[in-house]
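F.,

This is the one I mentioned.
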């Protein structure tokens, strides 16, 4: 008799490749933001140094993707919209954030259908973060 072990679904964190790949995604995202003129308005709403933002996004993404809850352990619930209210986030900033993240995902070569699912989730989140009228 052949008894198969039950299979379990991998979390997006596991599918993307764990902390090393989440770190690579975060680094590429902020590198692109810092270097590409197409993301200038987005870059302008950030601090002169991106070190703190890089670390916090890495911690957040790890947990958001189903991995270690680094952000939650340090800061509690993310309250993304509330924490971003001091920053002007309009359609331009939303679109640039999403384009920058999608470019980073594409360059990281995230497997399908995970890449498509992440882009969809990021689009919803980015739109929800807007705090400026159209």
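My design for it:
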């Amino acid at each position: 008799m052949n008894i198969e072990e039950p299979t379990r679904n991998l979390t997006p964190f596991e599918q993307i490749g764990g902390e090393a790949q989440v770190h690579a995604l975060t680094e590429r995202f902020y590198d692109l933001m810092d270097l590409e003129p197409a993301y200038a308005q987005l870059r302008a709403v950030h601090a002169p140094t991106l070190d703190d933002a890089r670390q916090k996004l890495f911690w957040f993404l790890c947990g958001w993707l189903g991995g270690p809850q680094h952000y939650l352990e340090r800061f509690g619930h993310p309250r993304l919209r509330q924490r971003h209210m001091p920053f002007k986030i309009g359609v331009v900033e939303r679109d640039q954030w999403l384009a920058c993240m999608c470019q980073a995902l594409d360059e990281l070569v995230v497997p399908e259908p995970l890449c498509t699912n992440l882009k969809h989730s990021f689009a919803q989140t980015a739109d929800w973060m807007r705090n400026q009228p159209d």
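The chain has one domain: 13-129.

Talk soon.
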